Amino acid sequence: MAKMMGRFGVVLVGLWAGLATAGAQQTPAPPAAAAQDGAAPSAATPAPQDDVKQIKLTEEQVKRFIAAQADLAAIASKIQAAGDTPDPALQTELESIATKHGFGNFEELDDVAANISIVMAGLDSNTGNFVDPVEALKKERDDVQKDSSIPDADKKQLMDELTEAIGTTPKLEYKENIEIVKAHKAEIEKALQ
């Protein structure tokens, strides 16, 4: 549960932080860059690949996720403060929120949040088209490699960060999730503000 809590805190806080700045982002930011800034991970930096259980989303799951956001927002500071070590009271509170909103348990809500995050990270804020975050990172890495105006030391650091991000960013397994999330994008963004 502790590992799952830590990931959810990243996904939840990342969704909120990422959507707050979504208009400014078009491609995923490397996790190392976010860490250097001391900023919370954005929606553009989904949880590491081995932590995400990708599922085929349903309309109902997305609607229930949206409905749960008011309750989750009320305890967001507790989630952030808990990090990877939530106390039993917080775990109970999260389970209660999950079941209140029709999820079997908190883990199911967590999986839905992670899968929504993956899709949201790939939605271009200008066109609304989905670009797989891994593919966007690869393109960004190629662009950095070709850019002769970047000093060698900076280029090496950027290349290392982008390579690491490519290795930890999950590739979308269920393409049908794109249309479901896109259909509810405005509601998701509003709920996460």
Task: Write up this protein.
The protein has one domain (2-191). Helix content is 65%, strand content 0%. It has helices at 2-20, 31-37, 59-74, 76-82, 88-100, 106-122, 133-146, 152-168, 176-183, 185-191. Helix 5 (88-100) packs across helix 6 and helix 7 (133-146) runs antiparallel to helix 8 (152-168). The radius of gyration is 17 Å and the shape is globular. The chain starts with a helix and ends with a helix.
What's the arrangement of secondary structure elements?
Elements: H1 2-20, H2 31-37, H3 59-74, H4 76-82, H5 88-100, H6 106-122, H7 133-146, H8 152-168, H9 176-183, H10 185-191
Helix pairs in contact: 1-4, 1-6, 5-6, 6-9, 7-8
Keywords: Signal
Biased composition (Low complexity): 27-49
Signal peptide: 1-22
In short:
This protein has 193 residues and is mainly α. The chain is 65% helix and 0% strand.
The total number of structural domains is 1
Number of helices: 10
The helicity comes to 55-70%
The total count of strands amounts to: 0
Cα-atom Rg, whole angstroms? Answer: 17 Å
Tell me about the largest β-sheet: none
Shape: globular
Give the assembly state of these chains. single chain
* Proportion of residues in β-strands: under 5%
Give the helix/strand class: mainly alpha
Could you report the average pLDDT, rounded to the nearest whole number? 79
Q: Which stretches are low in confidence, meaning pLDDT under 50 for 5 or more residues running?
A: 1-7, 16-49
How far is it from the N-terminal to the C-terminal residue, by CA?
27 Å
Series of H and E elements = HHHHHHHHHH
